[in-house]
């Protein structure tokens, strides 16, 4: 058993191996505070006999309920399919380690991280990334170099390494950084309109801690670990030359076609023609032809950009594709927008709901509710493909979450806008940057729905082509530039700063100077996009859609909650039934009323306020007769509040029999003439100056 310990963010981080999961190819136990994560890595020993030019890497992160001393909720009482949070952490780990595998290695790899203990302060995501790196370094699997990871927050103007869950609630920055000793390889986070300089400063602080984590891993893996051999060539040299001679010029010509659909159709024909010519000599060469085609395209695109500063579609490196925006595109939705950038098109639709529509999340930290949701869908027709519609993929969940983070600090509070808000982004056409198109479309549709968004938000994806010391940063990358390039740097923000950020690389790292330059170029692009978006809608609409529910929230004293609810909920149920509304009462006295019309809400509010307000001596009330006794009439002047109108106070003449004067259910005006020491209310009808009983029909 081996173990290393270091101090990170004023807490002890330990990495231990050799005691648990010893049949895995690599396994480590990572502990930070009392949060413990076990990460294992295994690979398929049988080599692939068929051609495969991609890395079959699977990463799974799971939070076991017992880690927090909980039994899973629901009917089955055991962990089921991964929750969104687990999927997002799995993606964090995957995106951190994937660039560090050598090209050509294609044996199946599986990384599994289990959260075994959770201290309610320190999340397991960072430990999962560190564990994946350490276990890969301990295994035979080729892994170019170890990585480390930390989370950076900013509280009261000071950067904090690995802030706790509670500290993150008041932090203006939440940034996860993973990297090698010299450069970051992955970023994910959000901020309260932070500047590029703040992001760079946070990364610099993170890199200093990452170096310490990597040093610890190197001590853990001090003895030499033999690594698997990597095939020198995926395609035999003779076959590659033969394929290239047939298709090279045709492929280059095809990639000069700007329209994606037309280009793909052209490439399909080239691939089929080449296979027809080669299938007798090489019967199983279809995948090799595809591989060579991609290598030709990769080399052509990169040379075009590096040498000529020119892109496939004729744009300059800093040029954005043609943009168009439209709002209120659907007649019966609460808010809608269509955002198109080149051949990427997003339909964003907002639905406003009530308190009952909030999402209930059962995490290890406990149960909580979520009132803003952004869901991203990527149907197959968006790329001209045929595949079954299934549950959301990891990619869809990740893209939706990134876009959702962009609005974290810009949404109105529940007090300002007591609605549950759901945005659905359907990608109708895709050629790169669909998650950032979602940010733009969501911003437009939220304003169209009348959500008082603090500022408009735009998103842009930045790319990179880097050859030795020469590099070109690309603004608004297409799918092809993402595929053949070195970087996908998604940045969302307002005119005043960055609100969400995500960096994925295909190389081992990128210098901070390049990241800073990319963020500055993104800021310029944001400004242009926001100016165009403002032409469609420049501020939230003042009125909600006539099809949206009406919601009103107000506060009552905590000691009045019981009176509003009534015995067994009798009072509140009656108000709900009679006003056709939904009413939610929280422990702090906050009441939220939702209904089909403002009149219904006002009626329910008036009923509640009548209960809450203290009965005033001298005030006239319209009450309902509840009981008739020989000596007087009991009248409910407010829900749950009854008073007695003595027979002598019924009229200015002598009343012999009250049953001849009034019936149960009659509505009568009465004045409060006294409240005794026991709180009993004394009423007078004759003090109002009315003699005729107002009967209820």
CATH top level of the largest domain is: Alpha Beta
Q: So, CATH architecture of the largest domain? A: 2-Layer Sandwich
Given helix and strand content, the structural type is alpha+beta
> Gyration radius, to the nearest Å?
33 Å
Strand arrangement across the biggest beta sheet: 8-7-9-10-21-20-18-19
Written description of the protein model:
With 697 residues, the protein is an alpha+beta fold. The chain has 5 domains: 2-220, Ribosomal Protein S5, domain 2 (2-Layer Sandwich); 237-308, Polyribonucleotide nucleotidyltransferase, RNA-binding domain (Arc Repressor Mutant, subunit A), CATH 1.10.10; 323-463 and 519-536, Ribosomal Protein S5, domain 2; 550-612, K Homology domain, type 1 (Ribosomal Protein S8, Chain: A, domain 1), CATH 3.30.1370.10; 620-688, Nucleic acid-binding proteins (OB fold (Dihydrolipoamide Acetyltransferase, E2P), Beta Barrel). Helix content is 29%, strand content 30%. An 8-stranded antiparallel β-sheet has the order 8-7-9-10-21-20-18-19, with helices on both faces. Strands 1-2-3-4-6-5 form a 6-stranded mixed β-sheet. Strand 20 (487-494) and strand 21 form a beta hairpin. The N and C termini lie far apart (87 Å). Residues 693-697 have low confidence and may be disordered.
């Amino acid at each position: 058993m081996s173990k290393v310990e270091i101090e990170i963010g004023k807490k002890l981080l330990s990495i231990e191996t050799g005691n648990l999961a010893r049949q895995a190819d690599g396994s480590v136990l990572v502990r930070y505070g009392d949060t413990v994560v076990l990460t294992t890595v295994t690979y398929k020993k049988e080599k692939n006999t068929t051609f495969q030019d991609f890395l079959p890497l699977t990463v799974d992160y799971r939070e076991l309920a017992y880690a927090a001393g909980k039994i899973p909720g629901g009917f089955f009482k055991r962990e089921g399919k991964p929750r969104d949070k687990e999927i997002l952490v799995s993606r964090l780990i995957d995106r951190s380690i994937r660039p560090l595998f050598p090209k050509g290695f294609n044996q199946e790899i599986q990384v599994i991280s289990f959260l075994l203990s959770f201290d309610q302060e320190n999340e397991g995501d960072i430990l999962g990334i560190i564990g994946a790196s350490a276990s890969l370094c301990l295994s035979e699997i080729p892994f170019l170099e170890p990585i480390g990871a930390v989370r950076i927050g900013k509280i009261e103007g000071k950067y904090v390494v690995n802030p706790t869950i509670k500290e993150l609630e008041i932090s203006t920055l939440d940034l996860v950084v993973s990297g090698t000793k010299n450069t970051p390889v992955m970023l994910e986070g959000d901020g309260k309109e932070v500047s590029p300089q703040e992001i760079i400063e946070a990364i610099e602080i993170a890199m200093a801690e990452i170096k310490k984590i990597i040093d610890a891993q190197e001590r853990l893996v001090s003895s030499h670990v033999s690594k698997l051999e990597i095939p020198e060539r995926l395609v035999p040299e003779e076959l590659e030359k033969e394929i290239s001679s047939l298709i090279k010029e045709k492929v280059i010509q095809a990639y000069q076609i700007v329209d994606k659909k037309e280009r793909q159709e052209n490439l399909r024909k080239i691939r089929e023609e080449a296979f027809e010519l080669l299938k007798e000599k090489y019967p199983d060469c279809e995948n090799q032809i595809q591989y060579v085609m991609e290598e030709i395209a990769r080399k052509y695109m990169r040379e075009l950009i590096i040498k000529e500063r020119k892109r496939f579609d004729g744009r300059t490196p800093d040029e954005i594709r043609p943009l168009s925006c439209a709002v209120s595109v659907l007649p019966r939705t609460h808010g809608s927008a269509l955002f198109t950038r080149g051949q990427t098109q997003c339909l964003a639709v907002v639905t406003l709901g009530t308190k009952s529509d909030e999402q209930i999340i059962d995490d290890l930290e406990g149960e909580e509710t979520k009132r803003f949701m952004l869901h991203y869908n990527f149907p197959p027709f968006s790329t001209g493909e045929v595949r079954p519609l299934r549950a959301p993929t990891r990619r869809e969940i990740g893209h939706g979450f990134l876009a959702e983070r962009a609005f974290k600090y810009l949404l109105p509070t529940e007090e300002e806008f007591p609605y549950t808000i759901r945005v659905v982004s359907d990608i109708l056409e895709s050629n790169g940057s669909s998650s950032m198109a979602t940010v733009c479309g969501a911003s437009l549709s939220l304003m169209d729905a009348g959500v008082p968004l603090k500022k408009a938000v735009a998103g842009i994806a930045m790319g990179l082509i880097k050859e030795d010391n020469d590099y070109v940063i690309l603004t608004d990358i297409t799918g092809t530039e993402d595929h053949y390039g070195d970087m996908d740097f998604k940045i969302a923000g307002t005119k005043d700063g960055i609100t969400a950020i995500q960096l994925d690389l295909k190389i081992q790292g990128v210098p901070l100077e390049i990241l800073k330059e990319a963020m500055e170029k993104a800021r310029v692009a944001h400004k242009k996009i926001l100016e165009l978006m403002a032409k469609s809608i420049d501020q939230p609409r003042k009125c909600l859609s006539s099809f949206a529910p009406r919601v009103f929230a107000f506060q009552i004293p905590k000691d009045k909650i019981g009176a509003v609810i009534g015995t067994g909920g009798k009072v509140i149920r009656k108000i709900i039934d009679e006003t056709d509304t939904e009413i939610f009462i929280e422990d702090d006295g906050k009441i939220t009323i939702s209904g089909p019309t403002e009149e219904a809400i006002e009626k329910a509010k008036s009923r509640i306020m009548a209960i809450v307000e203290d009965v005033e001596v001298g005030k006239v009330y319209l009450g309902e007769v509840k009981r008739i006794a020989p000596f007087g009439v009991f009248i409910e002047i407010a829900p749950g509040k009854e008073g007695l109108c003595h027979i002598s106070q019924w009229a200015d003449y002598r009343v012999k029999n009250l049953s001849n004067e009034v019936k149960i259910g009659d509505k009568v005006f009465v004045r409060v003439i006294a409240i005794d020491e026991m709180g009993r209310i004394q009423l007078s009808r004759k003090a109002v100056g009315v003699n005729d009983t107002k009967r209820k029909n």
